[in-house]
Design a protein that fits this description.
By secondary structure, this protein is of the alpha/beta class. 20% of the residues lie in helices and 38% in strands. It contains ten helices and 21 strands. A hairpin with a 2-residue loop joins strand 2 and strand 3 (97-98). Helix 9 (392-408) runs antiparallel to helix 10 (414-425).
């Protein structure tokens, strides 16, 4: 296995070749990120690496990847993998590269640009990298060094059109390739927008998607954010979400994961304004030998704020899930109201979940709680349904549906909710709760 320096150095030539094709404004930012990547490498060492304690990054780091390039594909193939509605603003990236012929911008006010463009406003350029800290995480540094394309969404003050922006990052599954999607969302005051990030595709060969998203929630504005991951058992997916919420801002997150060999979602929300709030909910389904790691963190730095963290997992086969959730309440964050919960339904005796919720409270006038559960359905629940004439298999499936549906039902976009019901609920395994 390569050591830290070798892992970074093997991509030096690709980094140099990439630079000549990118806009000048990104040059200094990418150079600094590459230096950090060389210094820290990827988190392949388990000792002293608390953030990756239950997930080994070695299988992800082991291959020497080449940068993914666009290959011919038709739009219908992409649509079959992702939610799509003609009323949405649909933006497509294939192997990390923007595809203008598949994309559209039908909003008269919201600006959607791709990072490879040269005509970005100065304040937008300065916002790239403003939240994510790549100094202690190699995957974030790697993405920042190779940031070649992605989506920049700018929502002006007072825009309450409720526009749905659907970002599709399609992986064509070219063997031993990596793509580094980048997303920046910046909202003005008193605005409202919904953003869907789809990480889909993959194939029969090993690939890596290494993404970073930064979201600035403006004063008194609302961002409804949805993240979907549906790839194959041969894909690796590492995603970073960094969010900063201003005064009276609201950030609502719904994350859905149902397909990946090894997947990790690292979400960190900074509640940085008074009376701000965040509601983070997720649903993950693992089967076979899949491994899913959710590392979700909330940082309360101002008073009179609320947060809700609620994740659910369904595990089958020999799969494994990890949930690490941390809520930090700083000394200045008096009157914080925060609750945290992780619930797991384990369908197989060979499946395993490691759940580690945590609270760090440095204020003395707060209302906070956390908890985690993992297990099978109790016999009384099944007996109750069977006593009302429901056969065992139907009762088992209804119980699993109900467990998953609690999160899916919170999706406010009707077309997306219907898609998730079809994509997730119909893919759940046949199961018989027997005692």
């Amino acid at each position: 296995m390569q050591d830290t320096i070798t892992i970074a150095d093997q991509y030096e030539e690709d980094f140099q070749n990439l630079g000549s094709t990118l806009p000048e404004w990104s040059s200094e930012f990418r150079k600094e990120a590459m230096l950090a990547f060389k210094q820290i490498g990827l988190p392949v060492h388990r000792k002293g690496n608390e953030k990756w304690k239950y997930t080994s990054a070695r299988p992800i780091a082991e291959p020497q990847y080449s940068l993914a390039k666009f290959e011919e594909i038709d739009l219908d193939t992409i649509k079959r993998t992702s939610p799509w509605h003609d009323s949405w603003l649909n933006v497509v990236f294939v192997n990390g590269q923007y595809q203008g012929t598949f994309s559209e911008n039908n909003s008269p006010t919201i600006q959607v640009s791709n990072i490879a463009a040269n005509d970005l406003a100065r304040d937008v350029v300065d916002s790239v990298g403003g939240i994510v800290d790549y100094s202690d995480d190699g995957f974030a540094a790697w993405n920042s060094a190779f940031m070649s394309d992605g989506s920049i969404i700018t929502v002006p003050d007072g825009d309450n059109s409720g526009t749905v922006i659907n970002l599709i990052f399609f992986n064509q599954g070219v063997p031993e390739t990596v793509n580094h999607p980048r997303v920046l969302v910046k909202t003005g005051r008193n605005s409202n927008v919904s953003v869907i990030e789809n990480y889909v595709g993959g194939g029969e060969h090993r690939t890596l998607t290494n993404s970073v998203s930064e979201i600035y929630v403006g004063e008194s504005s609302t961002v409804n954010h949805y993240r979907l991951m549906s790839e194959t058992d041969h894909t690796y997916d590492v995603g970073y979400g960094r969010v900063k919420i201003a005064t009276d801002g609201r950030f609502n997150s719904r994350a859905f994961f149902r397909g990946c060999g090894i997947g990790r979602y690292d979400l960190n929300v900074l509640v940085d304004g008074e009376n701000a709030s965040c509601d983070l909910q997720g649903l993950y389904f693992t089967s076979g030998n899949q491994h899913m790691d959710n590392f979700i963190n909330i940082d309360h730095s101002r008073p009179h704020c609320q947060s809700n963290l609620f994740y659910k997992g369904i595990l089958d086969g020999n799969s494994r899930a990890v949930f690490g959730g941390t809520v930090l309440v700083r000394k200045e964050a008096q009157k914080t109201d925060s609750i945290q919960s992780d619930k797991n339904l384990i369908l197989s005796p060979n499946a395993e979940v490691d759940s580690k919720p945590a609270l760090f409270i440095y204020a003395d006038d707060v209302k906070c709680a956390h908890g985690a559960t993992a297990g099978n359905i109790d016999a009384d629940t099944v007996f109750y349904m069977r006593s009302r004439g429901v056969d065992l298999e139907a009762a088992s499936r209804l119980i699993i549906y109900g467990f998953a549906g609690e999160v899916i039902d919170k999706v406010e976009i009707e077309e997306l909710r219907s898609y998730l019901e079809e994509a997730f609920l119909t893919s759940l395994p046949s199961h018989r709760f027997e005692f």
